[in-house]
Amino acid sequence: MSNKTNRGVVYQGPGKVEVQAIAYPELALGNRKCDHGVILQVITTNICGSDQHMVRGRTTAPEGLVLGHEITGLVIETGRDVEFIKVGDVVSVPFNIACGRCRNCKEGKTGICLNVNPARPGAAYGYVDMGGWVGGQAEYVMVPYADFNLLKFPDSEQAMEKIQDLTLLSDILPTGFHGCVTAGVGPGSTVYIAGAGPVGLAAAASAHLLGAACVIVGDMISDRLEQARSFGCETIDLREEGSMEDKLEAILGDREVDCFVDCVGFEAHACGCNSHVEAPATVLNSAMTITRAGGQIGIPGLYVTEDPGAVDENAKQGALSMRFGLGWAKSHSFHTGQCPVMKYHRALMQAILFDKLEIAKAVNVQMIGLDQAPEGYADFDGGAAKKFVIDPHNMVKA
User: Is 80 exceeded by the pLDDT of residue 217?
Assistant: First the structure.
């Protein structure tokens, strides 16, 4: 056992997180050595909207779970079998944990690795039903299958200069980009992004990077809509009365878009005067209504199989009342599931390093210390138009 200390952000039940002493990571998986793993000193670790679902009590997450799946770190120890990652490397950690050996990994489907979660395909750090892996909102964390999983930054000094952008490679930037790719965004596209949280803003920035002609972002929080406008998006305030088709026509001269990206997920609310009412299928139904025939719908927003706080018994089991016949009639294609981060993160790193993408500015990164994490969770839950990034060792500040 190590005598080194570690602290992390721990889920304590609905609405409550605490920074507590936790075990220092070891290169071990249960009772066996993890010779393919590394231990990281965490440089940055981000608060994600998916974490917020758990903290709100909207999943079956157990108390005592160490949170955090968006991790960037400094390698301080390597296992015997790690060949290409070295002590001193600064690396981005994909939130998907993947073995690199199974059929799905070999096909590039690293979000649904078959070997890292005994319950079902796919795993992540610090997340409910994702294999029991310890989260990275901490001072130190262990990463398995390091040679396969980790993205090494080519120059550590340059990485630290751009760390507020590069920290977003672990999840939200590839996730937003994946949503756009699977929605068919390309040069000249018209795109609707549902939700102006960090993933929605990352998707909007990604749509611009992919050459979209017009990117429209819809949300119910004024500050988030203002943030979307700050980098060239059109916006729709979903609290206002009127049909989505009329609102699109006022912007585009057209009542439909080419591409739709759902960055909201299962905690969606109804629009207009009923915006206080939860309606978990409303975004999906809107997608089918306002996407042109033959268009594509990307769904990076999270949908769960169990939601204890859902509005009805069906929704508690992830069964939503969708108007699927409309999507069928319009020949829509739908793409769901976790983003396979490794499919995109190297290219997106290059876009950041060569100044083609200012993603930290787009999502409004705010740096906080580890002890400020509970406050960050509370502010994020209140709709703050910010992406909270934790700096556990004051390495970014320094």
Answer: yes
Tokens, residue 160: 């630290």
Domains, in order of start, for the chain = 7-171+342-390 (3.90.180.10), 172-335 (3.40.50.720)
The tokens describing 256, both together, are 């439909």
1 confidence band (pLDDT: 50, 70, 90): low
Average pLDDT, the chain: 96
The structure's pTM equals 0.96
pLDDT tens-place string over residues 80-126? 999 999 999 999 999 999 999 999 999 999 999 999 999 999 999 99
